# Entry
Amino acid sequence: MARTLITMPKTAKRGELIEIRTLIAHPMETGYRHADDGSVQPRNLIRRLTCRYFDGRDDVEVFSAELFPAIAANPYVSFFTVATASGSLRFSWQGDNGFAQTESVELTVT
Amino acid sequence: MKATIVAVLLASIALAHAAEPDPRRSGYEFMTPQVQAMQRDDAANPAMLAVQDGAALWDRAAGASSKSCASCHGAAATSMRGVAARYPVFDAAQQRPLDLRQRINACRVNHQQATSFATESADQLAIESFVALQSRGLVVAAPSDPKLQPAIERGARLFTQRMGQLDFSCAQCHDGHAGQRLAGSTIPQAHPTGYPLYRLEWQGMGSLQRRLRSCMAGVRAEPFAYGAPELVELELYLAQRAAGMRIDAPAVRP
# Structure
């Protein structure tokens, strides 16, 4: 379980553009670095972040990103979506060595 | 009406004269606007991930006592407020100065009957940054215990003592050339107001002792071991030097 920090409004007006900011604790080891003894440190990356918006009826992917070795440790990703209906935003990070982390944040639309 | 304006003007001139500008600058002010924004914004500051871990550790029972930090200290927001601002302190039991890390470890061993955190481990930095956060915005308190005076003086001597193959003292860069550049990096004034902090170069959290040891390795000196009295004395001197400056922990530094 990695530590995550998701910052977004709890409530929004219908049709409003909301900013979502995510931060996750992860080393993002490139696979190109050597340890002190000369051995290559195995690659350990988050490969993909997706965000799905579930409003009780539709489950829509509103954002996805692919992550690469040049992205720093503890990757910070921010994006926007339109608040359409009350529901939850479901975040999923997937990576090497079976890394998988999911979080869900509720959004109330008025 | 006119008289009031004149009075206000005179008062503001008097104030401007009374308050000499403080020449001391936090490392924050030497950073690019982008990194400053990263530190200011708790949603983007990666140190806040460590703070979250620290908050969980605060409430988690550890050791044979099955006590958590919260069992004795209660809510950190009140009990730990200002603590990071006044460390290192003189410890009566051990008859020596202790920094915040040594105090936390002493608490773990004596009161929780658990083992000390491993040096620079994620848990250690997490609990330290959680405690440091409770002092954010407060000012660094000058070490007031007279028993600390000899240690502060030793720290001051270390700060100006040349060391390593490059034969540099801390003061030569941080007093003599602050604001100038060492290769691509701006040399700050070395005020420890943001520790433990997230360093982009480290891609992770680190303590003031890690910073001091890296500087020593930089001038090709043999760094003092973690927890060595010399490092605590340097921390004490730096705390005295930064007394009155605002704490901005957990900071971000390039």
Q: What stands out?
A: Chain B has one domain: 31-253. The interface with chain A takes residues 42-44, 46, 48-49, 52-53, 200, 203-204 of chain B (CB under 8 Å).
